[in-house]
Each structure stands twice: as C-alpha cells, then as structure tokens.
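S1.2 Input.
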Amino acid sequence: MKNTIAVLAFSSLLTFSACKKTENTASNTDKTETAKPETFAVDSVKVNDSIMLNDSLKLKFSSRMLVFPTIKDKTLLDSIYFGNKNIQDFSKNGIQALVDKNKNEYFNNVKKDSKDWLSDVKYSQEWYSDSGMNMKSNINDYLHIEYAWGSYEGGAHDNYGFSERVFDLKNNKKLVLKDITTMPENKLQTLLMKNINKINGGATDDKGKINNSDMLLVEVIPATENFYFDEKNLYFHYSPYEITAFAAGDITIPVSWEELKGTLNPEFKERMKIQ
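S1.3 Output.
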C-alpha cells in the first residue's frame, strides 16, 4: 500500500513538473513571438574649434553629424554618410573620430596652402568651415536628412549649400525620383517653372519682395535628385547659383501630389496614404 502511494505521489510530481515545463515553454514562446522590433533611434556628435594662423586670420571649424545606432545595413549607412568615403565604424565613437579627423584636415590644409600669402593678410579676417546633418522627418519609414554646409575663405561673401536625401528604411536604400513618379522630365520641368514663385527665397529690394523668377540664371529648371516630400507636396531644393543669382538665396519649389496624379509609384502612394 505504501509502495502504491509512493508511486502515485511520484507520478503526480512528474505530471506537475511536466506541466510547469510546458507552461514555461509556452511562456518563453509567447515572449519570443511578441518581441518588439528595435525602436528607431538617432544621436549626434559635434565639434566646434578654432585656431589663429597669425594676428589677423582666425580659422573656425564646426560640424555636427548624426548617428543612427539602430541602422545596421552597411550599404544604407554608406549612402547616409556619402560625403565621407570608406567609413568602417558607424558607432558614435567612430563618427566622433571622423569629425575630429575632418577638423584636423581642414586646419592643416589651410595652414599648408597659406604659406605663400599669409603674410599679406593685414586686416582681421575670420574664415570658417561649417557643416551639419539635420533629421527633418521620418514619415512611414522614409527618413529625410538635410545636409548643409557653409564656408568663407576670403572674397566678397561666403558660400553655402544644401543636399536633401530621403532614405527608405524598409528597403535599405536611398530614394530616387523614379521611386516616386514616372512623370517625364520635360513635364516636371514645366511644373517647376510654373511653381517657382510659390515659396519666396527671401530676396528683397527697396520696393519689397523680389520674385524668384526675376533672378533665374537658367531657361530650364532641372528636376534634380535634391528633393524631399511631406503629406502635401514633393519639394525640389536648389542651392545658391544653381538656378538663380546668389542674392536670391536657396530656392525650394513645391510640386503637389495632385499635379503628379496618375504618375505616382503605387507602393509609394500607398505608404504615404496619398488619395
């Protein structure tokens, strides 16, 4: 009788243990199945530094670069950091080292180039190199980054410019115009000329605002790959001298989704929820 009770008790213990293992396994399976994807993250590094080349000439360097710890695809990262070739380390420390390297190269190059003319600089000047990456939006896994730069190395005025890039985080690539619209180039050019004054570049004279079209340097406005978009429009961004005089500033021309109706890529249209 005692042996029978012992066997029954042992059997119950095995059954209980088996149930616990099954529960634990199910619990672990649930945890695996409900694990959430890594949340998109962005960080940044920056450098601000200056040196005096002589009593009259000061050099300033400033740079801000974004860091994307959750982006792992190297081809995509190479495209994001397109202005800096052969980067191997995309971590925050790696990008910080890159910015420091760029700073040292700028100072050393100007020092080297200035040997023949530095003694001729008699009045106070401040030369600079400034660059930055700004995340403008991340809509429906379309990441828009604006790259801006400015510099002054003598002359009548400084120079500056912009590069707009949109990255498809679902497909790990830089977006190109044909991913958005199949509209022929000549028809896009017509729309760009039609819409050139919709967003004023900020130029004025004693009579007030000057239209962008009044300062055009080209007869045809190219449909550049320097574009971005939001829920309403596709925007083409032009740096000074690209299509207008420097005084016009940088020019942004919108083209509405309605104007591109019938030419939009179906996948893009669906992801952006364009009616």
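S1.4 Remarks. The chain has a mean pLDDT of 89.
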